Amino acid sequence: MSLPSTQKAIIVEETGGPEVLKVKTDYPVPTPQEGQVLVKNNISGINFIDTYFRTGLYPSPKPEVLGREGAGTIVALGPGANPYGFKVGDRVAWLSTGGYAEYSAVPAAKTIKVPDGLSDEDVIGAFLSGLTVVTLVKEAYPVQKGDWVLLHAAAGGAGFLMTQVLKSLGAKVIGTAGGPEKVELVKSLGADVVIDYKSDEGKDWVKKVKEVTGGEGVTVAYDSVGKDTWEGSLDAVKRKGTVIYFGNASGPVPPLPLTRLSPKCIKIGRPQLFGYIEKREEFEFYTNELFTLLKSGQLKVKIHKVYPLDQAEQAQRDLEGRKTTGKLLLRP
Ligand SMILES: NC(=O)c1ccc[n+]([C@@H]2O[C@H](COP(=O)([O-])OP(=O)(O)OC[C@H]3O[C@@H](n4cnc5c(N)ncnc54)[C@H](OP(=O)(O)O)[C@@H]3O)[C@@H](O)[C@H]2O)c1
């Protein structure tokens, strides 16, 4: 198959607001190196982490093509060994960088065949977000049946999936979400209590969490909102509870003195997905678990919108503007 030498891609040359996302139509198609495959993307995922690289909150070399995941077809293999047996024409999903583009050269070790019966949209609707969720509930804190769990941003890309997974584990879920429509969505997933933390009543969400849990607090709080909620999350967990910080949607959690944890003997964690799936067997283990949940229908995906590639700027504005529920996708 002959490949084009240039492609359409979204390039970030300098850090800044969404306006720094520039459409290029003559960006070189990468040549896959040893250990890589070249994928023609059918769908790419948009994640909040993309905005951290764009703003420089997470430093990364520029110019840069954002985008940590995609699904499509392998169109070329890098030279050398092919330990995972990939072929040109395989339908795959990948986790790496460079997804806001028609073609991405990505590590074979972070690429996996998509099983029949799952669409690319289903897979990327739940890939990076869903892998985050299954690792958070197993490794960051192993959720037990009957645990009271507080989950912020429960209507978002990760939150929509996590609410379902927590309920399937038998947890009692208190979700937070901004606005009545999001609250209804989270309730529809079976959350036990949903607090609109933007409303006057919901602003004191810690008090509500205490009321609901008989004054004790939750066993674990999963907090991806960060700056605006980190302190409340510490207050909302019970004695010997756990707080897992895993994102910065409102800004990062500031450095905190460890003695803040002492009075209630609280444990905290600040994991990242890529640390849990670094080894091939870990990546395969969790992707298999995720694909099983998707194929069985136990885990439902919600796509907020599929944006054309050249609307990546608008997509990031919508995500940061808290206007979305579920997952945002890009169609290269
Ligand atoms: N550690 C990891 O490995 C890992 C992996 C994946 C995702 N994450 C994190 O998980 C979170 C969710 O990611 P996502 O891609 O699925 O995004 P998302 O949840 O779809 O979007 C972020 C949500 O955060 C809430 N939010 C609260 N305060 C906000 C503010 N000041 N500005 C913007 N949003 C605010 C909004 O929901 P409401 O309006 O309902 O408040 C918004 O919809 C992010 O923090 C992300 O960094 C971490």
TrEMBL record:
Keywords: NADP, Oxidoreductase. Residues 16-330 form the Enoyl reductase (ER) domain. It holds the Pfam family ADH_N. GO terms for molecular function: quinone reductase (NADPH) activity. Its EC number is 1.6.5.5. InterPro entries: ADH-like_C, ADH-like_N, ER, GroES-like_sf, NAD(P)-bd_dom_sf, QOR-like, Quin_OxRdtase/zeta-crystal_CS. SMART domains: PKS_ER. It is an enzyme of class 1 (oxidoreductase). PROSITE patterns: QOR_ZETA_CRYSTAL (PS01162). Coiled coil: none annotated. PANTHER family: QUINONE OXIDOREDUCTASE PIG3-RELATED, QUINONE OXIDOREDUCTASE-RELATED. This is NADPH:quinone reductase.
